[in-house]
Structure formats: C-alpha cells, structure tokens
Amino acid sequence: MAGNLFGKIAADTLGLSDIGKIIEPKDFDKVDGDDYIMHEDGEKIFFVIKSKSDEYVFTNRGLLHVDGASAVSKKRTVERHEFYYEKVHSVTLETAGTVDLDIEIKFNFGNQAFSIDVDKNQLEQLKDLYKALVEIGKLQGKNYISIEDGTNGLKMANEALSRCVIEGNVTNIVHDLTNFNLDWMEALRKKYSNKDFTEVFEKYINN
C-alpha cells in the first residue's frame, strides 16, 4: 500500500502522471467526464485524453475538462468550454524527440490556454484531434466574419434610413425597426454561430 502511494507521489514529482493516454471509444462511458455530458441534449463524446489527474473530453459541443489536483487526490473540478461561446485557436502539435516519452497538443478556448502531454506512441490518433480542432477554428473564424459583415450591413442600412424623411407614426416606426434589427441579428447568429460540430469530428476522428 505504502509502495503504491510513494510510487504515485514520485510520478507526480517527475511529471510522469501528467502524460495522458487516448481512451478507446468503447471505454468512453467509463471515464469520469461521461457523467457530465449533456446526453439528453444530443451531446456526444468523440475524443478523450486521460492522465492520472486530468481528463480532457472532447464532444461535438466543446471540451469538458475534469481537473484533478494530483494523482493522489480525489478532488476534481469540472470545467466546460463550448464552441458556441468560445473560439478555438492557436492549435499546435509537438512531436517527440529521441528521448522524449510524450508528445504535446496545445490550443486555446477563448482566453484559456491548454497544453496536454500524450503518450508518444499515440501520435497518429492525436493528429486526428489536431486536424479536427484546426478545422473547427477555421469554421468559427469564417462564421465570425459573416456575422461581422451582416452587422455592418445592418448598421449602414440604419444610418442611411436615419437620413431619410419618414412619414407616419414615429412610435410604430421605431418599434418595427427595432424588431427588424433584433430579428436580423438573431437570424445571423442562428446561421453562423455553430453549437454542434459533429460533422467535423466524424470527418477527422476515426472512431
């Protein structure tokens, strides 16, 4: 018992416990993160990296990070990052050198940076995740530009309209114009703010 405890402490000290393993799809339901997935809303796990202290669960809707303080602690903090609210960017993949035990994938969800060490023997699987995150970031970037263009177009139309002489009930006109603007922005966000990236994961992740 003591030997196991000292082994875990040593692994923490050397950083070995932080080297994650990519979990097979048949074992997705066994990871802690599965308990926090919104299965009722169609959320689905596509990729899991698990170390002794952390789990990184990638779903069609975002990332669920089950954060452990150390390999010897049972305390966990669950953080959710959703594609709808946060842009994925700065995705990089670092392969292993001759003596390295791990490879590393880095990315940002919004302002939060992630750096995950993975067993170097699982490079091919990690490449799939890298490609999926890069593609999601590109699509989010295109969507952002489309929303910005649509917003600027609406602003220009309103400015042009403000310079015109409009006859009729001012209260009704303002009411109708406000509702039109709200409907326009809602339609833009609905069209270009993706919540679900199932197609991207199915394209790149070989489950």
From TrEMBL:
Q: Which part of the chain is the Bacterial Pleckstrin homology domain?
A: 14-136
Q: Name one Pfam family in it.
A: YvbH_ext
The record places domain YvbH-like oligomerisation at 152-207
Q: Which regions span the lipid bilayer?
A: none
- Top-level taxon in the UniProt lineage: Bacteria
In its UniProt entry, what is this protein called? YvbH-like oligomerisation region
